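Forwarding the complex inputs:
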Amino acid sequence: MNKSDFSTPQLQDFRGVFIIFFADVVRKMRRYFFAFFVPLLNENFRAFVFNYFVVAVSFLVFIAFGYAYLLYRNFKFQIKGQSFHLNQGVIKRSHIEIPFERIQNINLEQNIFQRILNVVGFQVETAGEGNAEIQIKALRREVALNLKNQLLEEVKQVQPEIDLPTHKQDKTEDSTFSKSSNTETKELMELDFISLFKVGISSNFLKGLSLLLLFISTLFNFFFDVLSHFLQIDFEEDFFNRIPETLTFVLIFIVFMLFLGFLITVLSVMIKYFGLRVLRIKNNFEVEYGLIKRINQVIKKNKTQVVEVDTNPIKKWLNINNLFVSQASSVQLSDAQKIGLVGITNPQISTFFEAIFDLPMQQDYVYLQSNYRYMIRLFWRQSVLFLIGSLIGYQFLGWAQTLAIALFVASILIIINFLAYKKSYVSVSNDLIKIGSGSINTNTKYLALHKVQSIYLKQNIFQQYNQHADLVIYTASGREEVSYLCYSEAVKFQNFILYKLESSNASWI
Amino acid sequence: MKFSNLPVDLKEIPDFKSVALQPISSKYKTVLWIGWLIPFVLLMLIPGAVFYLVELPVLYLVGIYSVLLVIFLFSAIEIHKGFPRRKFGVRELDVIYQKGFFVFTETVVPFKRVQHVEIKQGPLLRAFQLYALKLYTAGASSGDLVINGISISTAQKLKSKILQVAEIEEEDVVDTLQTNAEKELTNQEKSNPSTKNE
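Prediction (whole assembly, two chains):
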């Protein structure tokens, strides 16, 4: 086994140049997506400027590659003294120094480019302060493991209490230690293809649909522009005059869209969570998933703030749940940033829950339900969109069809809002806070009482009048809100949470 | 609701509503007015200037100014009615801050969750010799608490009080961590001291 020496400044693997370059190209492609349509749009453009366009693009590509090379040359990392150092930047140079005691986590990951080139990405996470995270784009696997293990040894010396998984160094060592490690490392779950498929078909495909609609509406504008240019037809007039006749076509179109949205959601979920594997190492968990971008993340017991279980009627029928973990971070976590253990079964949830919270899942909770006024608030919020939609419908379809559609939409909204109100609550046990939400789906969030950072009650002018309040709880992973609680009861909850928090010695991380 | 199934008596739990809160400096109301009126007057000038330069129907101007007037009215009510509600209070272990007329909020931040404390002063506050106290907690910055418009002595008193408690807690945490670590070490010595494998 070759031990690399990290005490001198090190470069990444040379293949890093390509990784930086490709990542840059992908980012630019995304941003200037529309620029690529320009040559297609205009004949004049094609005839005269196309050659220049090609020259310009290739010139830019050349520059980007040169820049990637410079980035690579200037990216140096080393282990020196009591910290990990990183120098980077071509125009704006920066030096990052992370003391060992601030290192929380070390992740290895591979996206599609890194896979093709057979290198791994290396990330160092800190305790969630600022953006001092280190990302090394390309290292050979052996070097990455070596670096990880060397860093871990150092980290363990300063933070003996830390629980970080060490990767196996090589085969022989692995076999000698496999017996002792069996007691510590256990597999919590491994998602097979059928379960993955179940997760896919039971996910909320409205998300995929909205994505699709956005994409299509942008494309639509394009096509209208291009076609009306070539065909000399005023498309909009023609199209809208024929709407009543083409209602069947529209219906088929809608069904097709729904189907496509469903397909996109299923596929994207399946690609994202392909081969999900969760390993338990003492009370921490190592999660690995992804088809195109293989991600390896560690769920640390201390760093975990909120555990969220999401289910819906189809999932219940299939006997699966989605579980999302929010860890401490310096920014409000978006849904995409939470670590998802999808397709998890109930017994697996209990195991996970008990490991993370050190408590049995069955707890005595005291509940506080949202008031029915929450439902009315939801209606108010939807009313603007609803009115605009109705007016547009009235313009194009006439009042009879609009009324029918409006009644249909309204009844759906009534059901959804009623469910949302019924499922909204906050509850406390001796050690935990449980927050419920959802409409068709049912979402349950668990957080330890001592992980609350601050807590406030919010009353708008109507709530001041009718004596209700929204309860907002901040943790190190963001805010959680429960709407429309009875004010005097909400105050009691706030008092109880503060009392528990202030009389406990447990730390939030 | 009853907390009957919990082993804590509800009467034992201190109620943050019972704390007598202190108002912030009354000079801060002027700061609020000035800090809001200057940008607003500038904003009022823009549509007039545009109207002067470009021919536009008078109706547009009337529309824009009536919207601005409504905004002005609401903000004026917020400042005037909301100012008496800006109050803070300190308990043994946490700080309470409330504000707002249209949206009334009551925030409680426990001292031991405060990461660091900053006494700040912008140009407008400097003109009135007032200060702002900012309490940083872990996580997203929207969870931080700012108490605007207090005197320097109040700010410093608050700061030292908060830091004192926070530091004691910190030491406790370090102590518990150390004892935990020691425990773990002895445990590890008892069991097989081996590197953890995947």
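Residues 44 and 90 of chain B are 41 Å apart (CA to CA).
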